[in-house]
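Students often ask why we bother encoding 3D structure as a string. The short answer is that it lets us treat folding as translation between two languages. Here is a chain of 128 residues written in the first language.
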Amino acid sequence: QVQLVESGGGLVQAGGSLRLSCTASGLTFRAFSTYTMGWFRQAPGKERDIVATITWTGDSTYYADSVKGRFTISRDNAKNTVYLQMNSLKPDDTAVYYCGKGPSSFEPIVGAPTVASWGQGTQVTVSS
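And here it is in the second language, the structure alphabet:
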């Protein structure tokens, strides 16, 4: 059973930075290196929206328009870990951030319904 554990959330002032981490267990690093990984976020009363995704090799990334130029997704397959570096944070970035694993090896994440496994989430709060 795959488990994803996020960390790194917290309270930060607008303009600040946070780095989220998501580590997968229940997968060998070889298996982890075949899955697209993604970060999503969900604010109260809203849907869970995609933030960023990264392919299994790390060669290709996708960002929501709202975070382009501010957030960077990366991965270390040897550590079964994916990261989200968040800079120039805004109050609108306040949400629970979730890590997600793609549906199967070498398949993309194209939205929340295509995520096969979720982490428990980590709260990010940006004060104005």
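Translate back mentally: The two ends are 40 Å apart (CA to CA). Keep this in mind for the problem set.
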